[in-house]
Design goal:
Helix content is 64%, strand content 0%. By secondary structure, the chain is mostly helical. Helix 8 runs antiparallel to helix 9. The longest helix is centred in the first third of the chain and has 18 residues, at 7-24.
Length: 193
């Protein structure tokens, strides 16, 4: 995975990848090598802005992919630019409406904005497209918990565990883990492959 901690290096790497992708028509190949957006966003705000600039320039090329838009949307969301993020996710969906990871990223942005019903709808779409991804069930379970519905929350955590997640909403004393107590849980994103 790639952590952006040097602005010049980050810009160089992303520009090279974007150029190669545009020239070769490689669809999303670089995204899986970049790791999670939380790793990308572990760099300085300036390095992330430089990465976003590189993605902005890549979108102007002839072969923008959903991955370009999703990655840029995730970076917008990192900076709380939710409308820009949602716009990029919508563009990605227009290009390919069958990528569950795009709906997942958009759901997390809706959750960060407090739009839980829109987030639930996007997670339902993600689950319909990829019913074997346990993280979608975990995130929906957290939303149901935040909405005060322990039955649906527990059902989703049970489904996630059946798919191999192996986690829990609560500790051994039955207390909800801090990471699930509010929408800050949704501030990390997974880069789609």
């Amino acid at each position: 995975s790639l952590a952006i901690d040097n602005p010049e290096e980050a810009l160089s790497v992303i520009q090279s990848v974007v150029l190669a992708q545009s020239q070769l028509g490689i669809s999303n190949a670089y995204l899986s090598s970049m790791g999670t957006a939380s790793e990308i966003t572990s760099g300085t705000a300036e390095s992330i802005r430089l990465a976003k600039m590189a993605l902005d320039s890549s979108v102007g090329l002839d072969l923008p992919t959903p991955g370009h838009y999703v990655t840029r949307g995730i970076i917008h969301a990192f900076f709380d630019e939710f409308e820009l993020a949602l716009s990029d996710f919508e563009r990605a969906i227009q290009i390919n409406p069958d990528l569950a990871s795009t709906y997942h990223a958009r759901a997390k942005t809706h959750a960060n904005r407090g739009d839980f019903q829109l987030a639930l709808a996007d997670l339902a779409s993600a689950i319909q497209l990829d019913p074997l991804d346990s993280q979608f069930f975990v995130d929906r379970g957290v939303l149901y918990h935040l909405l005060g519905d322990p039955g649906l929350s527990n059902a989703d955590f049970t489904a996630a565990n059946r798919l191999g997640w192996g986690g829990s909403l609560t500790n051994s004393e039955g207390q909800v883990y801090a990471r699930y107590r509010d929408t800050s849980y949704f501030s990390t994103y997974q880069i789609p492959e």
